[in-house]
Specification:
Blueprint lengths: L14 E4 L2 E11 L2 E17 L2 E9 L4 E2 L1 H6 L3 E12 L5 E17 L5 E16 L6 H24 L4
Antiparallel strand pairs: 1-3, 2-3, 3-4, 5-6, 6-7, 7-8
C-alpha cells in the first residue's frame, strides 16, 4: 500500500505590499537664510495585505509620515509609515539636509505563525538631499569695494609719478 502524502498547507503571507509604481524624492532648495526641504511620495495602486486580507489600497500623492492604520489593527505589532521623513538636519539658513523613506515597515514582536516572532525595520526607497549655502555680497557692497580698489590703485600710481627718481 503506497504512502499517502498530504498536500502542503498554503499559509498566506504574514504581510505583503505591492504597487504598480512608487516614486519618492527628497529636495532642498532656497537661498542663504531661507533653505527649505520637502520629501514627496507618489504611488500607483499600492496594496497592503495582512494574513492574506486586503488592508489598504492607496493611489496618488501621500502626505508626510502617513501611517496605514489598518495594518496595526490587522497585525498586532506592525506599523507601516509611508513618505517617512525621519532625518532633517541643518539650521535652515546655511545648511539643510533631508532623508525620505518611501516605505518603513516596523515589526515589533509580530507573530509569524510557525516562524516565531519578527522584529525590525524594513526600509524601501530611501532618498536624501542636502544643500550648503553661503552669503553672497550684495551688488552695492561689491561696487563700494571696487571703487575703493580703483581709488587705491590711482593714488598709488599718482604717488609714484610725483616721487623724484634717483
Amino acid at each position: 500500500m503506497p504512502d499517502i502524502i498530504a498536500p502542503p498547507t498554503i499559509v498566506p503571507d504574514v504581510i505583503s505590499i505591492t504597487a504598480e509604481a512608487i516614486t519618492v524624492t527628497s529636495t532642498v532648495d532656497g537661498d542663504f537664510g531661507a533653505l527649505a526641504s520637502a520629501g514627496t511620495l507618489n504611488v500607483t495602486n499600492l496594496q497592503v495585505f495582512a494574513n492574506g486580507n486586503l488592508v489598504a489600497t492607496l493611489n496618488g500623492d501621500i502626505s508626510e509620515n502617513f501611517n496605514v492604520v489598518g495594518l496595526s489593527t490587522a497585525l498586532a505589532g506592525a506599523t507601516l509609515t509611508l513618505n517617512q521623513q525621519p532625518s532633517l538636519t541643518g539650521d535652515g539658513a546655511s545648511s539643510r539636509g533631508l532623508v525620505t523613506n518611501a516605505i518603513n515597515l516596523n515589526l515589533n514582536d509580530v507573530n509569524a505563525g510557525g516562524v516565531g516572532l519578527l522584529s525590525g525595520d524594513v526600509l524601501v526607497g530611501m532618498t536624501g538631499a542636502s544643500l550648503n549655502a553661503s552669503a553672497v555680497p550684495e551688488p552695492s557692497s561689491l561696487a563700494i569695494f571696487g571703487l575703493a580698489s580703483v581709488g587705491g590703485v590711482y593714488w598709488s600710481r599718482r604717488r609714484r609719478v610725483a616721487s623724484p627718481r634717483s
